[in-house]
Inverse folding.
């Protein structure tokens, strides 16, 4: 029996800091891995948005392998089976635009030096690190408002950014920082 009146809320840590993550389900697969899948939707009426012509728009996150780091931090990482869906890597140079066909990408920045910077997706969603803050923000102009569905910015304190993986799959964006120590998920409708 667990006494819920004695839960230490100071040690609470969200599994996903994005706009759209709810009701994660964890199970053990046949290989003994702890796999987590969350609901990508929100019940916040200010952020509830269904594009015209769609009668529903919620989905599930990518399946994530759960692990514990040496210092006890929960880490989440897309299951390795997703690697089989990658195409040839394309170089991404700082300060240059890269255009991709379709709304599918698996962007990996492996050796970051912890400096501040931005990664823009379609000119509408920015993954950023700025003065110890890390997060995602939507551009706030009339052209982008329908992409954001009422969302603006989600940020967390992050002392250092060493690695980044951003997976775009149609109307979903999942951001994994520092080998999955921090995760942010959001819907968007470009």
């Amino acid at each position: 029996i667990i006494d819920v009146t004695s839960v230490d809320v100071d040690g609470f840590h969200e599994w996903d800091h994005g706009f759209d993550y709810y009701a994660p389900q964890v199970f053990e697969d046949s290989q003994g891995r702890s796999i987590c899948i969350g609901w990508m939707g929100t019940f916040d009426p200010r952020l509830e948005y269904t594009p015209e012509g769609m009668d529903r728009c919620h989905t599930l996150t990518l399946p994530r392998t759960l692990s514990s780091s040496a210092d006890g931090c929960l880490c989440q990482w897309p299951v390795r089976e997703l690697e089989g869906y990658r195409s040839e890597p394309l170089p991404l140079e700082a300060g240059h635009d890269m255009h991709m066909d379709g709304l599918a990408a698996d962007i990996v920045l492996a050796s970051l030096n912890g400096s501040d910077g931005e990664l823009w997706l379609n000119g509408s969603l920015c993954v950023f690190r700025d003065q110890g803050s890390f997060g995602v923000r939507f551009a706030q102009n009339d052209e982008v408002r329908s992409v954001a569905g009422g969302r603006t910015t989600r940020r967390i304190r992050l002392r250092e950014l060493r690695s980044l993986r951003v997976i775009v799959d149609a109307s979903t964006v999942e951001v994994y920082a520092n080998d999955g120590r921090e995760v942010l998920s959001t819907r968007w409708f470009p």
In short: The mean pLDDT is 84. The first strand starts at residue 22 and ends at 28. Residues 72 and 86 are 30 Å apart (CA to CA). The helical segments are 145-148.
